[in-house]
Amino acid sequence: QVQLVESGGGLGQAGGSLTVSCAASAASARTFSLYAMGWFRQAPGKERDIVAAIHKSGTTTYYADSVKVRFTISRDNAKNTVYLRMDSLMPTDTAIYFCASSPLLTPTTSPHFRYWGLGTKVTVSA
Questions:
Q1: Rounded-to-integer distance, Cα 35 and Cα 57, Å
Q2: What is the pLDDT of residues 65-86, one digit of tens each?
Q3: Which of 77, 63, 71 is nearest to 22 (CA)?
Q4: Which of 30, 98, 113, 122 has its CA 20 to 30 A from that of 55?
Q5: Residue 110: which region, alpha, beta or left (left: phi > 0; alpha: psi -120 to 50)?
Q6: Residue 15 confidence (pLDDT)
Q7: 111 in helix, strand or coil?
């Protein structure tokens, strides 16, 4: 079992930046580096979509077309934490952001992920 806790959400302005973090619990720390990690988001009334994913080593990343160039996923296995830096924010980035872990090498869709956090809300004002 992997327990994940997101933090860092809040209110941002269009054109600005926010960083959200996802930390594995102490009980999950030993296995964190064995899993690929991903960020998803769910806007009101919409499905949950993948935003970005990162290989367990951090060497390979994947981004949804809507966030390429603007968002950066990274991880620090020593801190059992994955980050999502969001630049050039747009109101359409408003959503609840979830992190998730996957035993696959290059997961890119929701079914590939096994464990999920509860999410952190990001609101971007115009």
A1: 9
A2: 999 999 999 999 999 999 999 9
A3: 77
A4: 122
A5: alpha
A6: 98
A7: helix
